[in-house]
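Q: I have 152 residues here and want to know how they pack in 3D. Can you give me a structure?
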Amino acid sequence: MEIRTLEGVLRSYALGFPETYEEFPWGERAIKVKGKTIAFMRAEPGEFSMSTKLPQSRDFALSLPFTEPTHYGLGKSGWVTSRFTVGDDPPLETLRAWLRESYMAVAPKKLAAQLETSGEDPQESAPEIEVRQNLQRQARAKSKKSSKRVKK
């Protein structure tokens, strides 16, 4: 699988979880829910990396040859980084499971419960994700404007 394709597939999957959105701090993609990061993704020519919080499967994940504890002290909190280069065969279903585990670990309990009780994986198409993200951005901007008016 090509690097950009891998990033696109995992991005779409992660953005299908309830109330997720993306930001771009430090030049990499951060998938967030309610201001908390569930995954960092970086796709560069020839390499893709993804960091997720894995409270249950951390030890198993770190036994795999393409993983390491996430740098900047995040590894101590259960974050694991996976790296792939051109020609690798990334285990897509495992990576999707890790995104789900990270979401369940980071999302507020009510949102995590929605995903848990539905028993379904997110299946939104890219256009649906784009529309939802635009609506969420507009709602956040409107909320910020409202709070500024109240402070005056």
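Q: Anything worth noting?
A: Confidence is low (pLDDT under 50) at residues 124-129. Residues 3-122 form a domain with the Aspartate Aminotransferase, domain 1 fold (CATH 3.90.1150.30).
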